[in-house]
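anyone seen this seq b4? input:
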Amino acid sequence: MARPLRIQYSGAFYHVTSRGNERKDIFRSERDRGKFLFYLRSAHERYGAMIHVYCLMDNHYHLLLETPRGNLSQIIQHLNGAYTTYFNIKRKRSGHLFQGRYRAILVEKEAYIQELSRYIHLNPIRGGLVESLSDYQWSSYLSYIGSEKKPSWLETGFLLGYFGERESSAQKEYRSFVEAVVGTQLINPLKDVFGSVFLAGQDFIKRISRGLGLEKNGDSRNMPALRAIASKPSLVEIENSVRAMVGEEDPCFKKICLYLSWEYGGFSLKEIGEFYGMQESAVSQAGRRFKQKVVERGRLRKLLREIVRKSRVLNVEI
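predicted toks r here
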């Protein structure tokens, strides 16, 4: 059987899982789990990984992460390789720790991040590790509900932006969203994965397939890994391209810049916020509102297509 397609590009969003070899435990102590979080931090600092959600179980882990540099393989090789070296040295063993290749599903984040995050954060209860999520410290959940300080490498602003503009109220709403289904038969959002590759709507799949040239190669499910999409432009380049097309006086100027940088540029909310002097939650809210306008207004969608076509700073189709 051919290996699943591995798609990489700037700004891609993934659900990543990796299991222990022969389903054996990869975390045997609190020190092990703490060391893995250390390597998550180093993946963020060295390779630009944007970690949105994580959950460490006994014999596997879950991540929702974004790759501004289009370098998923590099990130996971660093993470699994460094942790395997630590684990083997500590326990005087050798050989593989993880079972085969990691699994990476390319996700349409706007459509699935809420349900996926809830599904991942509920893993400790489904796995019988705890009865209350508040008792489990080895996931990002406590940071999302404000029960512990958020580590610098964890990106919570995008997801919490769906639950309110003020962080404190968004944290309460997110907690209600997750815990409302405790004890119920939760539907696994991963059941909708297409071709072992995509968790996304058909429009998203077609857009990515066109951008990568998949449609010219037949069945994408059995292809080898493809080259990354062209390197992303800087925030300055995106802003200059929009300025050249609509002018800085246009009331939509800043909104277009924010939208393109957030939706297609592969930049974190923090990076965009610092560039434009805004809070992360404000960037998220502005991007989401403008996206709705793009959906509703054909004229605006046409303008964005023209900006992308003429500027060539983003290798996407809108």
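The chain is about 45% helix and 10% strand. The radius of gyration is 20 Å. kinda curious what u guys think
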